[in-house]
Design brief:
Elements lengths: L1 H7 L1 H6 L12 H5 L5 E5 L5 E4 L50 H8 L1 H19 L3 H14 L4 H13 L3 H15 L5 H10 L3 H14 L3 H17 L3 H9 L10 H16 L3 H14 L6 H8 L1
Antiparallel strand pairs: 1-2
């Protein structure tokens, strides 16, 4: 769904590494800062773009699993020092309009019910786009019950649950979407849910599938951020750095996914004690975009 995927994806970076301006620390506190929704956005061909990763990268996984009855509140650690604070980035990002495949809905519920389902789906998509996830949730729950074979509904429902930190529930919906479509669009979000649940083998498997499919550089980048974040969560900073640095060369024209990757690298360099490299990267980011996460603040804290 159009911008929906992007919104969910935004959460990604928050949770894993620098988000695409959208990716959780309790993991909810930590991740909340790193993930941008990557859900719900749609590209020119009408396919849903996964949620954007979090703007700020936070390698720390959530401390607990959020149940379907639990709706976590994203918090920021305002008391931490600039050197240690991990700013949460927006989750993977989504666009406002929802691309609705009417044939898909008719096939799922019949011609007569499709009109009502489409109207409700558009309402939920608008609420998602405004980040009113608690408003979108009841509608999407009802739609998923009435039209369980409609991929667009299962996808948006899963992305909404993801943005709310309900990892297990989000996995159920997004795994169903993936099985129905054979798509890797939401693999970064799936991997981030596995990461939050400390299912390391599933994070690795999902990352491998995404890398092999190689759908787009931006989407692969989001998956790489999550995979590196999972390694950092396990204390494997050298491996996380190697994964992020591999093949990366600063392009002449920087896109947001480049900045997210640079931010994640800088954060890991700082944590591993390479302050000179961290300072240099944070400075490049701050020069390119002074409002990107807390890059300016990080430069000052490193002197």
């Amino acid at each position: 769904m159009g911008g929906l995927a992007a919104k969910a994806a935004g959460r990604l970076v928050e949770r894993s590494l620098p988000p695409a301006r959208s990716a959780p620390g309790n993991r909810d506190a930590d991740r909340a800062e790193r993930v941008e929704p990557r859900t719900g956005a749609r590209d020119s061909s009408g396919r849903v773009v996964p949620p954007k990763p979090v703007k700020n990268w936070s390698p720390k996984p959530p401390d607990r699993t959020v149940s379907s009855e639990d709706v976590p509140v994203v918090q920021r650690d305002r008391g931490a020092s600039p050197r240690t604070r991990r700013v949460a980035a927006p989750p993977p990002e989504a666009s406002t309009p929802v691309h609705v495949n009417k044939d898909e809905l008719v096939k799922a519920v019949g011609q007569q019910s499709a009109v009502r389902i489409e109207r409700k789906l558009r309402e939920a998509a608008r609420a998602f786009d405004r980040e009113r996830f608690d408003e979108a949730l009841p509608t999407l729950r009802m739609l998923a019950r009435d039209a369980p074979t409609a991929p667009s509904i299962r996808e948006l429902y899963g992305l909404t649950l993801y943005r709310m930190g309900r990892w297990n529930d989000a996995l159920k919906e997004l795994e169903a979407f993936t099985q129905m479509t054979r798509s890797v669009e939401q693999h970064p979000v799936l991997a981030d849910c596995y990461r939050a649940l400390r299912r390391w083998d599933d994070v690795e498997r999902t990352w491998m599938e995404l890398r092999e499919a190689s759908p787009s550089s931006a989407l692969v980048n989001e998956g790489r951020l999550v995979a590196a974040g999972a390694l950092a969560d396990q204390g494997q900073l050298s491996a996380a750095l190697a994964l992020l640095a591999k093949g990366f060369r600063k392009p002449r024209h920087l896109a947001e996914h480049h900045l997210r990757r640079m931010y994640a690298l800088a954060d890991l360099y700082e944590r591993s004690g390479d302050l000179a490299r961290a300072r240099s990267l944070f400075r490049e980011i701050a020069t390119e975009d002074p409002d990107f996460v807390d890059a300016v603040e990080r430069v000052r804290s490193l002197g």
